[in-house]
Amino acid sequence: VSVDETKAVLAKAGLTTEFMPIPLTVVVLKIGDRHIMVDAGSGVGQWQANATHLPGNMKAAGIDRGQIDTILISHFHPDHVWGLMEKDTNAAVFPNAELVVNSVEYKWWTEPGRVEKLAEGRKAAGRRIADVFPTWKNWKLVESGAEVAPGVQILEAFGHTPGHSTFLVTSGKDQLMVSNDVMY
Fold first, then answer.
1. Over the chain, what is the mean pLDDT?
2. 95 and 68 in contact (C-beta within 8 Å)?
3. Most CB within 10 Å of its CB: which of 35, 55, 64, 160?
4. Whole-prediction pTM
C-alpha cells in the first residue's frame, strides 16, 4: 500500500500518522498462582520510542512487575530482552523472576569472543548482553522440549537466532503456541 493509504488507515484507527507504530507482543500467563511472562519487550526508552508500552499495559491489566515469577525468553534481540534491564544502569527490572532461555541461545550470546564476531550493527547489543546477563544468578538454561512451567514446553525454532525458541502452552485439550519473530 502507499504511504497515503497507510496514513489513512492509521488515522481511522485513531493512531498517529507521524510514524508506523511497532507493536511488541509480551504475553503474561497466569498458571495457578504464578505469573509467567513471555519475553520482556524493548524496555522504556531503550529501543524505539514508539515500541514500548509494557509498564502501562501491565498496570492497566492489574499486573505489578513484582508478581512476575518467571520470564520465558524466546531470543536475545533487543526488542525481546531490553525490558529486563533498566535503561542507564542495566539493573534487573524483574530481579526476583526466574529467567528461562534455551541454553543454545544463552551460550551463543555469552561465548567469549562472540562480540568481536558480530556484524558492526549488532556489536553494541552483543556487548551489553555479554557484560550484563552473566552477572545475574537467576538464569535457568534449558534444552528444547523441556517443561519450563506447568503445561508450558520450550521448543526450538532456530534460525532467527541460534537458539531461538517458541513456547507451547497446553491445558487439557487446548493448546496455544506463543511465538515471537517466528513465521509458520
1. 90
2. no
3. 35
4. 0.86
